[in-house]
């Protein structure tokens, strides 16, 4: 796609265009294919960390697909003030992985879903209504650092899965490492050396090749698929709901982080038209994040937010039609009503899954770094903000025992790399003078400096 100086690209289909039905369905399937692996990966990782069995893991995967689909449809068409009427595909974000796993292991999944129920509605709902007042506090330096730490934090998780999964009897076995390397190699090769759909589906193709290679090794168990039902109605309170102060505070801050991701993705979508989102689009998009996440928690799904890889598809293909994305949402919701689909995802061997997670985590980190480099001048001030934020975030990620002297509640909150990085970046960027600080107007600073210099010249 070519672009003019404003950044607008030549669109094959504009926002309200309706491509022919067959073409729309195929384009919708492409959106689903790109996001289904990372979306279900979050559920898979958290379920593994808290020790859920195959049946409960499959149920969470099912709920993630269902509510990702419902949220995508709402974004495309709106329900009252909820929804942006933009082609935004929704799914479960890696932002919540660390906290959901830690809190789920410490307090139980009921505390995770209780915290999401409260904070999704209150925190991100409030952000949606009042976004104009706070958006200056989250410039590219802050959001870029948050995205980078999300990816860096997940790399060790991916390596553990690549080795077979923590606690597995065959952890570190050669065939596990080989399967992970195969997935990684295929995905990288297709992404770098092919074009079109093959490149867009490179991660999915890598997993498919790894899955086939794992079958003769005897590490694929189809038992859960055979026993799973074809269709099932979700039931509320599947894992219960409990309300603990520390999980609520933790998820409140993470929803603030998630809101910034969604803002960036919405801006990336409308950039195809050479414009920024309107205040109504921002508000409706953020309300979808918060309210649908709260609703999803009642049924046992993790928070939903916008998916950046699908923003890339819109810009790559030039297909901005929200009706195409609406079809993708319907497909996701239908898949979410089938336990067999959730069970099929759980048959992916840990090593195969790990090879994909390593790549996805690295891509998330690289996206954060790119956001910083493109939109931020790396002067001394910004380097200090980045160094302190990443240093503390990676510090608690790699050496969590350093916080053992703190109360348990403080360990849970400050032990989250995403939170400590975001909090450090937010505070330092706000109070340190610089062009990205909301408290200092660079234009006024420049005028004052020019006036002082001119006065000095006049005095001479």
TrEMBL record:
Top-level taxonomic group: Archaea
Location(s) in or outside the cell: Membrane
Record-annotated membrane-spanning stretches: 25-47, 59-79, 86-103, 109-129, 141-159, 171-193, 200-219, 239-257, 324-345, 351-373
Membrane topology value: Multi-pass membrane protein
A GO term from the CC aspect: plasma membrane
Main location: membrane
UniProt entry tagged with the keyword Membrane: yes
Compositionally biased intervals (Polar residues): 444-460
Pfam families listed in its UniProt record: Xan_ur_permease
Keywords: Membrane, Transmembrane, Transmembrane helix, Transport
GO molecular function: xanthine transmembrane transporter activity
Renumbered residue ranges of the record's region Disordered: 438-460
PANTHER family reported in the protein's UniProt record: PURINE PERMEASE C1399.01C-RELATED
Stored NCBIfam families: ncs2 (TIGR00801), NCS2_1 (NF037981)
Family: Belongs to the nucleobase:cation symporter-2 (NCS2) (TC 2.A.40) family.
Protein name, as recorded: Xanthine permease
Organism: Haloferax mucosum ATCC BAA-1512
């Amino acid at each position: 796609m070519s672009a003019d100086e404003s950044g607008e690209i030549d669109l094959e289909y504009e926002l309200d265009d309706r491509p022919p039905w067959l073409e729309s369905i195929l384009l919708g399937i492409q959106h689903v294919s790109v996001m289904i692996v990372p979306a279900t990966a979050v559920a898979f990782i958290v379920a593994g960390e808290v020790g859920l069995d195959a049946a409960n893991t499959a149920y969470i995967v099912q709920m993630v697909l269902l509510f990702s689909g419902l949220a995508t449809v709402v974004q495309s068409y709106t329900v009252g003030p909820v929804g942006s009427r933009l082609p935004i595909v929704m799914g479960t974000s890696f932002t919540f992985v660390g906290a959901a796993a830690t809190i789920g292991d410490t307090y139980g999944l009921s505390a995770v879903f209780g915290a999401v129920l409260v904070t999704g509605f209150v925190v991100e709902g409030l952000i949606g209504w009042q976004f104009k007042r706070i958006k200056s506090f989250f410039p590219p330096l802050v959001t870029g650092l948050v995205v980078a730490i999300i990816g860096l934090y997940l790399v060790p998780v991916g390596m553990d899965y690549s080795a077979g999964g923590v606690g597995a009897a065959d952890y570190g076995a050669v065939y596990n490492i080989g399967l992970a390397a195969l997935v990684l190699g295929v995905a990288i090769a297709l992404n770098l050396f092919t074009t079109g759909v093959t490149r867009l589906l490179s991660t999915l193709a890598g997993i498919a090749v790894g899955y086939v290679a794992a079958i003769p090794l005897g590490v694929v168990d189809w038992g859960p698929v055979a026993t799973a039902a074809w269709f099932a109605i979700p039931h509320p309170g599947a894992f219960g709901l409990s309300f603990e102060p520390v999980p609520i505070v933790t998820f409140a801050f993470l929803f603030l982080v998630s809101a910034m991701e969604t803002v960036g993705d919405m801006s990336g979508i409308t950039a195809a038209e050479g414009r920024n989102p309107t205040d109504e689009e921002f508000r409706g998009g953020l309300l979808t994040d918060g309210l649908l996440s709260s609703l999803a928690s009642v049924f046992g799904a993790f928070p939903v937010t916008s998916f950046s890889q699908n923003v890339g598809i819109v810009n790559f293909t030039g297909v901005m039609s929200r009706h195409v994305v609406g079809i993708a949402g319907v497909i996701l919701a239908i898949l979410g009503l089938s336990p067999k689909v959730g069970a099929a995802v759980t048959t992916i061997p840990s090593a195969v899954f790990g090879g994909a997670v390593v790549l996805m985590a690295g891509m998330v980190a690289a996206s954060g770094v790119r956001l910083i480099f493109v939109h931020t001048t790396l002067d001394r001030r910004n380097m200090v903000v980045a160094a302190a934020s990443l240093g503390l975030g990676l510090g608690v990620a790699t050496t969590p025992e350093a916080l053992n002297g703190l109360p348990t509640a403080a360990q849970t909150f400050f032990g989250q790399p995403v939170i400590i990085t975001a909090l450090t970046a937010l505070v330092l960027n706000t109070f340190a003078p610089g062009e990205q600080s909301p408290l200092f107007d660079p234009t006024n600073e420049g005028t004052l400096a020019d006036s002082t210099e001119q006065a000095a010249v006049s005095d001479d």
